[in-house]
Amino acid sequence: MNETRTPNFFVRDVPIYGDALLAPMDGYSDWPFRSLCRKLGSAMSYTEFVKVEKILSRSKEPAKRLYFEEAERPITFQLYGDDPDLILRAALKVQEWKPDIIDINMGCPAKSIADRGAGVGMMPTPLKVARTFRKLVRALEVPVTGKMRLGWERNKNYKLIARIVEEEGGSLIAIHGRTKEQRYAGNANWDAIAEVKSMVKIPIIGSGDVRTVADIQRMRRYTNCDAVMIGRAAIANPWIFARLDREQVSAELLHQTVHEHLAKSIQFYGEEDGQRLFRKYAVQYLLLKTLDRDSRKEILKERPSGEFLEMLNQVYAVTATA
Predict the structure, then answer these.
(1) Which of 160, 194, 204 is nearest to 11 (CA)?
(2) Where are the alpha helices (DSSP H) in 99-240?
(3) Which long-range contacts (CB under 8 A, 24 or more apart) does 237-242 make?
(4) Are residues 165 and 291 in the same domain?
(5) Which residues are annotated as catalytic?
(6) Grouped pLDDT means (10 residues each) for the chain, 322 residues
(7) Distance (Å, rounded) from C-alpha 37 to C-alpha 51?
(8) Residue 102: helix, strand or coil by DSSP?
(9) Is 278 in the same domain as 201?
């Protein structure tokens, strides 16, 4: 994207324009949805996370997950693993695919990932975090960043981890204001995000409980963070990046976005998989309170893309302005 205004902040030498961006989400922040959000105003793009062992194997999955187009830049590749040496090898490999930034996931609370010492499972081992960032910062040409939580339920060592990331040369921290045990329950702790922002000099992205346009500025004022990361709320309302709450989205814009997203999904995955993977977004895009059970079932049925579009047009016509 060609930008003429002043950057909101820099990730080392990478300018970031804007203060709201789509969070990396497994199964959701793929190229079709990510590029759509970027077009709507998301300040930068994070890929879905990729397991470092898969990058170092012959798997075709990493190339699919890390695919991007130039209009998405700045693009951040997010990796996860539990071995600093393997993380470094994987990062060196994907750096050849020309990302702007490489991010280490230290926030995923999924048991299958955290219990093996990856994702948020890195946080109880500060020495491993230090070793990982030290190795990557010294070896890579691109900036290295980290996405983290507050820690485990009782071991809230987010301040220590934030200091380590900065001291070892990390260029940005994104922090979700919940612990591993909380997952997505309860309220996000914005005070903790503000604490981290006050103690480091690198940019901080805040995450957690940002659901409306007003919440973007509310979190920024409360925490002084440089930008806000939006995850689950953006699945139902990608227009939040255009500073529109869901009830402000016109029927015309809804229709346009639905068709564009479906077209991107089919282009990227092929007709059958593209339609199947799009359906989870299609249901979210609707004003769910107005969508009856039969309409949900209709959206989730498999059918040829022409019939699927016709059915969507009928359903959206009823619900768009309800």
Answers:
(1) 204
(2) 111-114, 126-139, 158-167, 190-199, 213-223, 232-236
(3) 238/22, 238/33, 238/36, 238/37, 238/40, 239/40, 240/20, 240/212, 240/213, 240/216, 241/20, 241/21, 241/22, 241/37, 241/40, 241/41, 241/42, 242/40, 242/41
(4) no
(5) 108
(6) 78 98 97 98 98 96 97 98 98 98 96 95 97 99 98 87 98 96 88 98 98 98 98 96 94 88 95 90 72 65 68 63 48
(7) 24
(8) strand
(9) no
Are 210 and 265 found together in one domain? no
Domain count, the chain: 2
- Tokens 């040409």 — which residue? 141
Segments forming the whole domain that contains residue 314: 249-319
Residue 85 in domain: yes
C-alpha 290/C-alpha 306 separation (Å) is: 24
Separation CA 169–CA 263 (nearest Å): 41
**pTM of the model as a whole:** 0.91
Angle (CA) 82-84-88 rounded to 5° is 120
Note the pLDDT of residue 251. 82
pLDDT on residue 304: 66
Residue where a domain stops, chosen among 241, 273, 307? 241
Question: How many helices (H) and strands (E) are present in the chain, helices listed first?
Answer: 14, 10
Distance CA 162, CA 292 (A): 46
CB of 9 within 8 A of CB of 227?
yes
What is residue 300's predicted lDDT score, i.e. its pLDDT? 63
Which tokens belong to 13? 């030498």
Predicted pLDDT at 196? 98
Instruction: Clarify whether residues 151 and 264 are in a common domain.
Output: no
